Amino acid sequence: MAGHVSVHYSSLPVKNTKSDSEARLVRWILIILAVGFLCLFLVLPLVAIFIKAFDKGSAVFLAAISNPDALSAIKLTMIIALITVPLNAIFGVAAAWAVTKFNFKGKSLLITIIDLPFAISPVIAGLVFVLLFSAHGLFGQWLMDHDIKIIFAVPGIALATLLVTLPFVARELIPLMQTQGTTDEEASLTLGANGWKTFLLVTLPNIKWGLLYGIILCSARAIGEFGAVSVVSGHIRGLTNTMPLHIEILYNEYQFSAAFAVASLLSFFAIITLVVKNVIEWKVKKSEIPEEGAS
Q1: CA-to-CA distance for 53 and 63, rounded, in angstroms?
Q2: pTM listed for this prediction
Q3: If we measure between CA atoms, which residue out of 215, 185, 205, 195 comes closest to residue 91?
Q4: Which residue in 3, 199, 246, 263 is deepest, having the highest Cβ count within 10 Å?
Q5: Is pLDDT larger for residue 139 or for residue 193?
Q6: Can you say how many angstroms the Cα of residue 76 is from the centroid of all Cα atoms in its chain?
Q7: In the predicted model, is pLDDT for residue 202 greater than 90?
């Protein structure tokens, strides 16, 4: 019949409402499980720390964090972070640059050594320095003869923290620099720039957000490190106790309010680190949008 149009419904796309509803259900179940897990094991303990810190009033809180031993622990923690983070940043950039921009024998071994602190216990990392630098260690007698103290002193704490935080910057930069390749550096060298100028004007701007991200992670670990520092510090009040060690001593002495007051300060540092980390991630995503649009 003229004008008759035959429609084959089998060729039209059919929306599977059952499949969509199942996908939504699974999505919400996963979201609820993830949020519930985070609230139970992260948010609630964090809130409990701050509640317990101010449980006996702000006067007790201020007295706890202004105690000479607490101030010494805070100062030492900041000193260790200021020592280890810049050194690890320099090492991380150098290691990542070597691994990603050059081919040489032993590259796989270097990457393995960088990852080694992730594989061993922090306590073992601290014990290594005890075996090397203690009175009965490999270099112990020589250090005693020259009146150099490493174990149970600031140098030992710095070395232990340096070891456990060593991979963070390098591990952030290596994948980033591998993705970027060597095209920009080769172009810079072709145009007559030397290696140092190429690094400052080409490589460093390209890796700045990854470098900052690695520094943030390294700082957080340096401030909160317990296991390795506990082995080499000697737990000397006012001298070799960092904030985590000071918290442990207060808690073991049943000074719960003081322990939670210092712990809240440590948690506050962690929250600041998390905020800065998220800002950096936002900056990275924002910087990538124009590049994606241009491509």
Answers
A1: 11
A2: 0.82
A3: 215
A4: 246
A5: 139
A6: 19
A7: no
Provide DSSP, the chain: -TT-----GGGS----HHHHHHHHHHHHHHHHHHHHHHIIIIIHHHHHHHHHHTTT-HHHHHHHHTSHHHHHHHHHHHHHHHHHHHHHHHHHHHHHHHHHH---TTHHHHHHHHHHHHHS-HHHHHHHHHHHHSTTSTTHHHHHHTT---TTSHHHHHHHHHHHTTHHHHHHHHHHHHHH-SHHHHHHHHTT--HHHHIIIIIHHHHHHHHHHHHHHHHHHHHH--HHHHHHH---TTTT--HHHHHHHHHHTT-HHHHHHHHHHHHHHHHHHHHHHHHHHHHHHHHHHHHHHH-
Band (pLDDT 50/70/90 cuts) for residue 4 is: low
pLDDT at 97 over 70: yes
Residue 73 to residues 55, 79, 80, 151, 228, Cα–Cα distance (Å):
22, 10, 11, 17, 16
> What is the Cβ-side half-sphere exposure of residue 169, based on CA atoms within 13 angstroms?
27
Residue 292's pLDDT is 47
* Rounded Cα–Cα distance for residues 167 and 227 (Å): 17
Per the listing, tokens 């090492």 go with: 91
What local confidence, expressed as pLDDT, does residue 16 receive?
A: 61
| Average pLDDT score over residue span 116-127 | 90
How many beta carbons lie within 10 A of that of residue 22, not counting itself? 11
Q: How much is the average pLDDT of 234-253? A: 91
